[in-house]
Amino acid sequence: MEHEEPGRIRGSSAFFILHSSLRRILPCSPLVLGLALPVALPLGLLAFSSGPMPNMTGGFGEPTCRSCHLDQPLNAPGGSVRVTGIPETFQPGHAYEIAVQLEREDLRRGGFEIGARFSSGPDRGAQAGTWRPLDARVQLQKSADGTLSFAQHTTAGTLAATRGALQWSFEWTAPAHASGPVQFNTAANASNDDASPLGDFIYTDEQSSKSR
Ligand code: HEC
């Protein structure tokens, strides 16, 4: 008994510290539970690595993956995310192949999420165009209200074939009727493959494309 008691107290206060620090960042309780539970339950019951929640790209005032992957600075030196294929000027209805390239020394696993929204005009913040995965490493995720669509990694897409670099390719079809320029926001996670949200580096990118 004397040996068990201190251990129990330490365990539960560690849980409390993690929980209360998350509360400040994530006022929404399901999200708090999402991170607190893996501490208490065997890892793997909750598979965040199989695809993060929507609206985590850092654009339009939304948070990034750093809400949970929070122990390293944003855009830390030693790594980068590069998004290629976004045209300077897009042609309505035209399909573009876009690639997200993530680099960090020793990177073995990683993930990303990208969104495309009108950046001005009456449709500011609304979905601009459509995404299409080109392989099983990319999937789509809708916002809670169903109006926005994000492209993001699948579990298979988290594994780096070459240590230090990860790439995802997919298609974006420009809106048929463009009401203004489109803003692309990307957040990517160069993670350490320890099945936890800690020790991971989050990188962000923002680009804009004018309508023709
Ligand atoms: C609400 C909390 C939360 C948010 C937000 C979140 N993650 Fe995670 N993520 C987790 C947890 C918990 C794990 C560990 C469990 C697992 O691997 O599924 C994890 C694991 C991962 C892993 C595997 C990491 C490893 O080292 O094994 C990747 C890759 C990943 N997340 C990518 C992302 C990306 C990209 C975003 C943002 C677009 C994101 N996550 C946002 C909670 C979150």
Can you walk through the features of this model?
This protein is α+β, with helices and mostly antiparallel strands and 212 residues long. The chain folds into 2 domains: 1-46; 51-211, Sandwich (Immunoglobulin-like). The protein is built from 2 helices and 10 strands, in the order H-H-E-E-E-E-E-E-E-E-E-E. The chain has helices spanning 4-25, 29-40, and strands at 79-84, 89-90, 95-104, 109-118, 130-133, 138-142, 149-153, 165-173, 182-191, 201-211. Helix 1 (4-25) runs antiparallel to helix 2. Heme C is lined by residues 31, 34-35, 38, 47-49, 52-53, 56, 65, 67-69, 109-113, 158, 187-189, 191-197, 200.
Class derived from helix and strand content: alpha+beta
What is the averaged pLDDT score? 83
Kindly provide the radius of gyration, computed on alpha-carbon positions and rounded to a whole number of angstroms: 19 Å
* Amount of beta strand: 25-35%
What is the CATH superfamily of the largest domain?
Immunoglobulins
What is the total tally of β strands?
10
CATH topology of the largest domain: Immunoglobulin-like
Distinct ligands: heme C
Low-confidence regions? 1-45
| Count of distinct structural domains | 2
Number of helices: 2
Helix content: 10-25%
CATH architecture of the largest domain: Sandwich
Q: For the record, what CATH class of the largest domain applies? A: Mainly Beta
